[in-house]
Amino acid sequence: MTYNTPNYNTKNQPICKICEVAYDRLLLHVNKRHGLNAKEYKAKFGFNPRKGIQSVELQRAMRKAALANYDKVIMQNLIIGGISSRFKEGNIETDKARVRETSRERMTLKWAREKQLKKKSIEQLAAELARKLKNLR
């Protein structure tokens, strides 16, 4: 699929498709001023849903900050912290039957709670109606 690319002004800031004004953090503007979240805005105007829309200067600054904090952030959180969640020899793909079973159990519990709440609500309404009828007499 081919996605549209945002238009940029002379300061390399992306231009809002709704009001034609440029901002460093366009999606923040869209959310605050136009009430659309990033997903909605990107879908409405055909932008890539996996890419951010920000000024070139802001991209550079964010990249510079990430690289400056490489040891604290990337190394600790992603490289070292991710060891426990990586694929290990002998692992198999997700056990679909078990996932289905877990989901089914979770939904069964949810439906039982909803049914109980509905039953309780009906009983409360009936009791309230009985009280009001008694007061009318």
Write a structural description.
This protein is mainly alpha-helical and 137 residues long. The protein has helices spanning 26-34, 38-45, 56-68, 71-80, 96-136. The protein folds into two domains: 1-79, no CATH class; 106-137. 59% of the residues lie in helices and 0% in strands. The radius of gyration is 27 Å and the shape is flat.
Write down how many β-strands occur, each being a DSSP E stretch of 2 or more residues: 0
Provide the helix percentage: 55-70%
Query: Distance between the terminal alpha carbons, to the nearest Å?
Result: 71 Å
Q: Low-confidence spans: pLDDT under 50, at least 5 residues?
A: none
Shape: flat
- What kind of sheet is the major sheet? none
The rounded Rg comes to 27 Å
Provide a count of the helices.
5
What's the overall average pLDDT, rounded?
Answer: 86
Strand content: under 5%
Order of SSEs, N→C?
HHHHH
How many separate domains make up the residues? 2
Assign the structural class, choosing from mainly alpha, mainly beta, alpha/beta, alpha+beta, or little secondary structure: mainly alpha
Protein name: ROS/MUCR transcriptional regulator protein
Organism: Pricia antarctica
